[in-house]
Specification:
With 137 residues, the chain is mostly helical. Helices cover 47% and strands 4% of the residues. The protein has a two-stranded antiparallel ribbon. The longest helix has 17 residues. The relative contact order is 0.18.
Length: 137
């Protein structure tokens, strides 16, 4: 998996909530997470800027050509967490996607939104950490 591209798409969904770019990035990720429940209209890719379109294409190419695990599992592995399946379910709910869970079936998330950073001044190169201070935009 192209983890840098995956992180870029995930962070777009968290930092720019409510925007067309975040909607498109969510669509790509949810489509890879469970395409039968969350179909994705490819024309939605038109709203992404060049950098995010490139990230979306890289994630789809990585997933299609050498799928080793699901996208939410990659994010769990990258971050050392175990809740990205539930985070994807919340993403579907937030965007009112067909196939979404009912609110009462969703577990609360702590923190509710999460940005994955790829660098930190005190960390070595390639070290990942979470920005749990991310707030709704």
């Amino acid at each position: 998996m192209n983890t840098a591209a995956l992180i870029k798409l995930w962070n777009l969904t968290q930092i720019h909530q409510g925007t067309s770019g975040a909607r498109a990035a969510s669509g790509v990720l949810l489509g890879l997470y469970n395409g039968s429940r969350f179909p994705f209209d490819l024309t939605d890719l038109r709203v992404l800027d060049d950098a995010h379109l490139e990230a979306a294409m890289a994630v789809m190419l990585s997933d299609a050509s050498r799928c080793q695990m699901e996208v939410h599992s990659w994010l769990n592995r990258i971050t050392g967490r175990h809740d990205f399946g539930q985070r994807f379910e919340h993403l579907a709910y937030e965007w009112k996607r067909k196939g979404k869970c009912k609110r009462e079936h969703l577990d609360p998330l702590v923190p509710p939104h999460m940005v994955v950073k790829t660098s930190h001044p005190a960390a070595g190169p390639g070290t990942l950490f979470l920005d749990t201070e991310a707030q709704s935009a």
